[in-house]
Amino acid sequence: MREKAVLEAGDLPGWLAGIRGKTPVMAPVKRGRVSFTFAWIDSPADVRLDYVRTILPPKQALLPPREDLLRLHPDLTAAPAVSAEPFVLFGVHPCDLTAINQLDWSMLQRHNVTDPYYDARRRAAAIVALDCLPDRYCFCSSIGSGRTRQGADVFLTPLEGGYFVEALTGKGEALLKRAKLRSPSADEAAAAKAFPEEKERRTLLRLDAPVADLPDLLEEHYESPVWESTALRCYSCGTCTNCCPTCFCFDVKELPDLTLGSATRWRLYDSCQYNDFAIVAGGHNFRRERQDRARHRWFRKFVYLNREHGQPFCVGCGRCSQQCTAGISLVDVLNSVIAEAKERVA
Fold it and tell me: Which DSSP string do the residues of 165-177 spell out, in sequence order?
């Protein structure tokens, strides 16, 4: 940590205006009566830092729901559509920061392959993170994502009347040159230090087993009736994966213009919950049954990628449970399997 200071709440709009005057800013804004989303802002007045979670994660700034990859021309040349304009991603909560770190691994390091489109955006991004307090859907304490700072350039901790500010990188120091800061008092420094413990205390939703135990536990209950009962409620709509901050599956399509003079290759989010996701050449579908697709989601998050990366590919943000059209709770399903395992042992 290079610098610690306090930003008064009344000085936040001026800081944001200074940043916005130099580079685009994506930040949380209000949508409708109770929802929030990350969006490119025109005015600091639109920014809302009192949110618990957004409908879609800040992942969209780095891996958009749809993006052009190539523009194809009649002379068979292709121009990559790589964008690298600097921007600031503002107000990212620790769970989403954890998710960005996991996306960094999946898009830049996994299988020793670097995705150039994600890489360009990631290098162009400066991230201002913001600590938060949980609601009934949050379970970051069980996952271990609630205290993440890695990946942030500036970290903000809410205080009464302002924010405790820490610059974590050179990018962060550059951003804070535009902010009106003052030195923290001893009480403010103590409040900031105590914030993570208060967050842990308020997190009521928890997994009933350590995440390190989940890969073996779930594999031992591959045929659990929990998967069938979950599938009976599931619509296979893909809402859970589309709002997930760590899902990175996509499909690639090509679309010619009406004159056939050029075409665009683009990618868009795909979902393992869609009926046709696992269809391969010859028409075979490896996960034709809804139960197979539902189970695969939990295994993908807590078994396969957990073993490959050393962390579950879930950050406890609660989006999937809150947004699920069938009211399926990821935690309730996991805890049902855990309870089944404990009952079997007993």
Answer: EEE-SHHHHHHHT
pLDDT tens readout for residues 243-255: 999 999 999 998 8
**Read out DSSP for 266-302?**
EEEE--TTSTTTTB-TTS-BTT-SHHHHHHHHHHIII
Cα angle for residues 122, 123, 125 (degrees, 5° grid)? 65
Name residue 16's amino acid.
L
Question: 């008092």: which residue's tokens?
Answer: 185
pLDDT for 157 equals 98
- How far is Cα 146 from Cα 232, in angstroms, rounded to an integer? 32
CA 72 – CA 39 distance, rounded (Å) = 30
Digit-coded pLDDT (tens) for 187-228: 999 999 999 999 999 999 999 999 999 999 999 999 999 999
Per residue in 136-163, pLDDT tens?
Answer: 999 999 999 999 999 999 999 999 999 9
Please state, in angstroms and rounded to a whole number, the distance separating the CA atoms of residues 265 and 78: 10
Residue 265 near residue 254, CB atoms below 8 Å = yes
Distance between CA atoms of residues 7 and 239, nearest Å: 37
- Specify the pLDDT at position 57: 97
In this structure, the number of other CB atoms found within 10 A of the CB of residue 324 comes to: 18
Tokens read off for 341: 């395992």
Strand spans (E) along 51-193: 66-72, 78-80, 87-92, 125-130, 154-159, 162-167
- Looking up tokens 């200074």, which residue turns up? 18
Could you tell me the pLDDT band of residue 256, with boundaries at 50, 70 and 90?
Answer: confident
The pLDDT of residue 1 is 45
Q: 3-state class of 144 per DSSP? A: coil
Check residues 302 and 75 and name the one with the higher pLDDT.
302
Contact between 128 and 175 (Cβ < 8 Å): yes
Phi, psi of 176 (to 5 degrees): -75, -10
In this structure, the number of other CB atoms found within 10 A of the CB of residue 265 comes to 16
User: pTM for the complete prediction?
Assistant: 0.94
CB 203 within 8 A of CB 138: yes
> What count of other Cβ atoms lies within 10 Å of the Cβ of residue 231?
17
What spatial distance separates the first Cα and last Cα of the chain, rounded to whole Å? 48
